[in-house]
Amino acid sequence: MPKMGELTLTSVDEFDFRLLIKALGKGEKGSRALTFDEACLLLEGFAKGKATRAQMASAMMLMRVRGETTEEISGMVAGLRRTVDKDWHSLEVDIDWPVYAGKREQLPWLLLVAKLLAKQGVRVMLHGDSQALPHRRHVESCLASLNIACCTTPQMAKAALHSDNIVYVCAGDLAPVLDECRQLHQELGLRSLIQTAARCMNPTNAPISLRSYFHPGLDTVHQGICEILFEKSEYHAGSVAIFKGLQGETECNPRVATTITVVNGQTDNIAVSSLSIPTLLEGFSGAKVGQAELSSDILALLWREQEPFSADALTTLMSRTMIEQALSSMTATLAAVLLLLSRKSAMTEPNTTAIITTEQAVNLSQQCWTNRFNSTDCPLKQWRNRELLCAV
């Protein structure tokens, strides 16, 4: 048996997974973190039934107590991606949008942004796990109000993307092992690195992927994960945008300035930059009261009404401050996506030489929302036609 720290990794079918548990748990002086390859093998082994539930639960708890390393989380992401059916990888998607946090009381205004992008030809894939934090309001519970399909197979998702440019998929349908991991960390009563890893799957290899976090320090963790996965060619060329989401969800908070770290991975080059969405609601207060009681049908009303502040159907259900917060959150989130799209165009299109500014992105976001029912006038059409976004 090899010494700890000198493990010889074999195939999933042949490996003795007790060695990994010993490496993690061999006392205060003898224990160590898993390497990238070891963490990847552990996840693959559990997915294939070669690592037992007891071994996986032990590993998750040992890593949680010590504090998971970026290498361990990155290895778990790579392992997850290898369990995803190749037909998911082959789907054509522009934006990978993980939505795992849910909100404590607000509705997911981000769905309005995703719907708008899809209406203008940007292909969006949302994925999440509404069972991980069942006390929160998850995106999955609001899909029907905006007629967004929830699909369980790559074939169903392909059809939805073809017809509507948008789809939602449950995490367990992308990687069934995630359902088993969720059951384990719910039995243990602990968060685990799997919850972070699931957000980082990017199962369709979309060129733009969003990442949100809530707790301080997770921004640097996500940045490190991206850098490792780009360096090891586990991620295809593209950009990952990392920011503190509204109540942890992948949506910008208009009440504060949002700093977005962008990790751009191209062939043999990883570059990190940042952009910022300004505060859109200075000194704002009073919107929280009554938000928990709002029906998901509000999303459909907001989408339909051209003049929301004077629409009786809305104003009888929402206060003015609620409407203002919802629309501002939508504006901020869409502005962030437009900045990412313009950067992508500037990097990949030879005739695109300019990148829009933050101010232009906010103004453009408002224009896109106003013109959401007129596909010919909506500025997003220019991006789909390979033209400059800033020419509007």
TrEMBL record:
Gene3D superfamilies xref list: Nucleoside phosphorylase/phosphoribosyltransferase catalytic domain, Transferase, Pyrimidine Nucleoside Phosphorylase, Chain C
Source organism of the structure: Shewanella frigidimarina (strain NCIMB 400)
GO cellular component, one term: cytosol
The entry's keywords: Glycosyltransferase, Transferase
InterPro entries: Anthranilate_Pribosyl_Tfrase, Glycosyl_Trfase_fam3_N_dom, Glycosyl_Trfase_fam3_N_dom_sf, Nuc_phospho_transferase
Start and end residues of each Glycosyl transferase family 3 N-terminal domain: 20-82
Domain of life (superkingdom): Bacteria
Name this polypeptide is given: Glycosyl transferase, family 3
Example GO molecular function: anthranilate phosphoribosyltransferase activity
Keyword Glycosyltransferase in annotation: yes
Pfam families tied to this protein: Glycos_trans_3N (PF02885)
BP-aspect Gene Ontology terms: L-tryptophan biosynthetic process
